[in-house]
Amino acid sequence: MRQHRRGLRRQHLRRQHRARPAHHPAAAAVVRGHGCRHPDRGRHRVNPITPIVEPPPLVFVVDDDVALAESYADTLSAYTFRTEVITRWHGLQDALMDVRPHAILLDQHLHGVDTVARLDQLRASTDAAILMVAANRDVSDRVLALERGADDFLVKPVSGRELVARTRAALRRQVQTIGGGTRCRINDQPPHLLHPDGRQVLLQPPEAVLLEALLGSPGRPVTSDVIAELLDAQAIGSTPGKAVARLQRKLQAAGMPWAVNGVARHGYVLVRVQE
Question: Where is the composition biased (Basic residues) (predicted)?
Answer without folding.
Answer: 1-23, 34-46
